[in-house]
Amino acid sequence: MKILFGNTKPDHIHIKVDNEIITNRHKLNQYFSYKPQFNIFPKHLTVKDVVKEDMIRSTSLHQYLNTKISDLSTGEQQLIQTLYILNLPQPICLLDEPFAGISPLLQEFIADAIRTTARHKIIIITDHNTDLVDTIATKSLLLENGVLKPMP
C-alpha cells in the first residue's frame, strides 16, 4: 500500500485496472482511496467536518461531533478515517490496519461498515487481527517475502 501512494519507492511496479496499465499517479487516484495508519486530517478539522452525523449516530463518537479529530484517541481517529475513506467515490479502498487501537465494540462497528461498503466496492485490508478480518473477508492472502500467497 505504501508503494501505491508514494510513501515507499519500489524497484519495479506494474498496476493494471480494468485491463489498463496505470502509469500516472492522477489516474491511480481515480481508482484507489487509501487509509494509512497515521492521522491524515489537518489538526483544525472536527468530526462533523469529515463524516456525516448519521454515520456515527450509534457510536460513542456521536457526542464528539464538534471535537477536533486531533483531540480524539488514536482508535477514535482510526474509526473516523476508515469511515471517511469508505465513503469516498473511488471503487477500490485500501485500509491499512483499520482495527489497530480500536475497542472491540468499535471494531465490530467498522467491520459492519466494511461489509456494507464491500457490496459495491473492492476493499483491501492489511491488519494483524486476522481473526476479525476473516469474519469479513471473501478472500485472504498472506504476504511473505514480497509474494502474495493463499492463506493456509
From TrEMBL:
The keyword S-adenosyl-L-methionine does not apply. Keywords: Transport. Residues 61-134 form the ATPase AAA-type core domain. The keyword Transport applies. PANTHER family: IRON TRANSPORT SYSTEM ATP-BINDING PROTEIN HI_0361-RELATED (PTHR42734:SF5), METAL TRANSPORT SYSTEM ATP-BINDING PROTEIN TM_0124-RELATED (PTHR42734). Belongs to the ABC transporter superfamily. This is ATPase AAA-type core domain-containing protein. It comes from Myroides odoratimimus CCUG 10230.
